[in-house]
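Re-running the complex after MR caught last week's input typo. The corrected sequence lines follow. Everything else is unchanged.
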Amino acid sequence: MPNHRSERPDFFVRHQELLARAVTAVGERGYWSPYPESPSTLVYGVGAPEEGKAAFKAHLGQAFLLPGHAGSTSPVACEEVSPYGFALGISYPHLTPAEAVAVAKAAAPAWRDADPDDRAGVAAEILSRLNAASFEIAHAVQHTTGQPFVMAFQAGGPHAQDRGLEAVAYAWAEQKRHPATARWSKPQRKGEPIVMEKTFTPVGRGVALLIACNTFPTWNGYPGLFASLVTGNPVIVKPHPRAVLPLALTVRIAREVLAEAGYDPNVVLLAAEDSFGRVAAELAVHPDVKIVDFTGSSEFGNWLEDNARQAAVYTEKAGLNTVVVDSTDDYQGLLRNLAFSLSLYSGQMCTTPQNLLVPRDGIATDQGPRTAAEFAADLGTALDKLLGDPQRAAGALGAIVSDAVSKRLEEAATVGKTVHAPRTLAHPEYADACVRTPLVALLDADGDAETYTREWFGPVSFVIATDSTSHSLRLLHDTIRRHGALTATVHSREEYVLQAARAAALDAGVHLSENLTGPVFANQSAAFSDFHGTSANPAASAALTDPAFVTGRFTVLQSRRHLPAQEKTHV
Amino acid sequence: MPNHRSERPDFFVRHQELLARAVTAVGERGYWSPYPESPSTLVYGVGAPEEGKAAFKAHLGQAFLLPGHAGSTSPVACEEVSPYGFALGISYPHLTPAEAVAVAKAAAPAWRDADPDDRAGVAAEILSRLNAASFEIAHAVQHTTGQPFVMAFQAGGPHAQDRGLEAVAYAWAEQKRHPATARWSKPQRKGEPIVMEKTFTPVGRGVALLIACNTFPTWNGYPGLFASLVTGNPVIVKPHPRAVLPLALTVRIAREVLAEAGYDPNVVLLAAEDSFGRVAAELAVHPDVKIVDFTGSSEFGNWLEDNARQAAVYTEKAGLNTVVVDSTDDYQGLLRNLAFSLSLYSGQMCTTPQNLLVPRDGIATDQGPRTAAEFAADLGTALDKLLGDPQRAAGALGAIVSDAVSKRLEEAATVGKTVHAPRTLAHPEYADACVRTPLVALLDADGDAETYTREWFGPVSFVIATDSTSHSLRLLHDTIRRHGALTATVHSREEYVLQAARAAALDAGVHLSENLTGPVFANQSAAFSDFHGTSANPAASAALTDPAFVTGRFTVLQSRRHLPAQEKTHV
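Corrected-run output:
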């Protein structure tokens, strides 16, 4: 045990119960959330919202300081501009890939020698402090991603922290699957047994790299960050150039905790860059980088899988989230649920439904039959109803994150038959925010395959007329197997259709939601209960989080020796 | 549940206790072996040895029949020739890669739908019948690999079965980490909780391919075979052209058990070929082959890793097994142990020590100091003593498996200074067996790096004179990090040297044995206690077996739905 333990706070002892509860939770998969999702002063304390906002504002236009962080001399000015209409103007320490790897490697041995309990304790303390900083992080997430504030708070704060702790739980438990030492005593036909003492040490693979995305920097970033950290790897955090602040705050807190615990804070590093940089690609193929976590485009994700051959690569990429509509007992509930699903954060989620497969000749509902075209029109009406009130619309839609999304929306207006045209809304608080309502177009399953077999990231969805529900299920299966998906949904009042959908989803390798007509949405997944991705279709190579997400990040190395005679007698 | 369960034997119930005990064993890593290693009639029954031998002999010169196996019409004549001097002359069913994949895929859905308990039960029954066939398999292993009989029995029979059950235990337990169903109940500030029912289904990745080796077809093959099988994947077994029979017997037994349990026997297929075939390479890159297990050359292993990109690839390749000799309290024990290590199966093990690092100026021993040259000479003497008696020599050495090994032995005579020249021995039972004693050459750490940084598979080892033990440890670290190793050993009476060796081994990513002077040898690893490979150095990408070895073979897919109101009230 390192000397620091006597003088330093023992974070493992502090968080031991939480960690044990988290391990139980991932095994039970019922509802559990240690970090309250309500942005309420009843939970986070009087003054917390204002302090968080002030803390966020204090960063604007400043150099972001990370004490002791290498390469601070010539800061990077990242082009962070809030989708709500103002530039953040923050600069960050600059670190070349070679510097980052060298510094991380130097920090690695002591972190490797810490035991899994120590590392899990440090991680839990980091999460606890991230939770306390949830309001500050919420503003940082809102003004880098364009998420509406409450969502930025929940998804960027407590829900991301839940996902982080879930990764900590798996990583910690997986390293405790085998004992630190064991006695091996093999009976002999004659005489004393052969006795050996064996030690088993979980050892991280090497330097880990987290390449984060623009839209969910913390939610998608924390699982890889914490899984790598707890399994004994130093982590270089490479944020998206337009969403640096949420992860810079995370790195700062992680470094503070590491230092307090007596470890080199350089176990967690920030590698910020502007969008002209090649830091991600350079780091990803560095021979000492042994783990890469990535969320983003299929193009770069596939490049990483093809080129970062020295590393274990975990990717979440694009896909075709699909809804099969067969029949329903609650047509209005279905439409309300789907309309909110499409509107939430303007469809800028890797889980937003895009392809809505509806039999051309119609579905049975409690309000009578509806053809595919009628369904599309009804969905448009539901969207208008949901988004009619500007305050409520802003709270659901947030702002468009980038020009690329806006351009895609323009392009979408040219395909199929537009059933619900996107409107531009004025944001009640931010005059310069770009707020658009979703586009819905009617396509034909046979004629428009070229259109609906690519991902249209953003507020673009297609009602696709099919020959029948069988045809819809076959399409779901074939398109997801080929192009991937993070979510699949089925609506039917027939159990045999639900079972057929389950079979199609199992075979396509995608998680399935059935008959969501209430307050749960296809694009939401709850930590400790829902798996996020699957490694069984092209949209992702990892579940964020499960045992497969952590086992490749470390190896258990053993040593063995015979026990001296005097010790054997105590066997 | 499938209908067959009522009428068919329930293998899970039969083996449930064994499976639970195996899961406990892998978690405790003490001594445990369910399949007795002693080839004794007291264990295996009177007549078992003779029946096994007769069963083996009955295969010679015949067509090997696999009832119901596809492609049986034009059999493959494999070139199996016993290293003990006779041709086996057995032909096997012929299956093209396309046929094999198509048949395996057709068998997959029902096997996927079986639950993990059923699959583990089937696997345990297969292992139980393999155990009963241990004598027949022992002869098959002896006369394809050249292993001495007792070793062929132990390593090819019970020890391989142990490794198989170890893989079953990990695969079964890993699929049981998450419940089959869970109730998610999220409290709401007002009103009833939101309640969902979720199902979690482990689903295999697809068709699995096992590419087995010549020297340990069952021991190295069973972990991948059983890990893939129990995680729900059909397996195509592709034996080495010179060691088909042990795996053909295995496939036959597996198919019998599958059929009895009501599954398609084509869940396990044999893809035999002669050495001119390209079946392994063709299958490995087939788009539907999603898992590849391989033991063999670095060349083909690296090719698989580079090219079988659609699959999870688990390889065991070549390396430089290393011994650091610093000092000893039991010089004769050290020499005896090492001489046996080098002699066992003529060094034709992926774990045999090759590079013996000894300070040029000498080591301290209980018999006084010994220079590197003296140590090498003493090792030669120990070899002569061990192998002086022909019966005993034959029992240790077995026979040379192939011309490639013989040629390597000739080549080794030209490097460094030969200290112990290989002798050709007459086998007491088989006049035509090729039996050679090990070669030991003295090399210099600085001058002969080109020689000792490649693997010399077979009875070739080098005493390498180094500057000091520090130099030896540095060499161990650097050569293993670069070229890989499955085993590392240190001899020292100083605890600080042992600790330094542990640190070097952890950093190099290799398992370590310390001061082996008794009946445990560096090249042996015990199932349920010792990990075999590590994924932390180039010699292997898998441990055979650990959680990382199984988690990549399946995905847990979920479905979720709200509970109907009447069911909620029972929450």
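None of the earlier attempt is carried over here. DSSP finds 22 helices and 21 strands in chain A. The first helix of chain A runs from residue 4 to 7.
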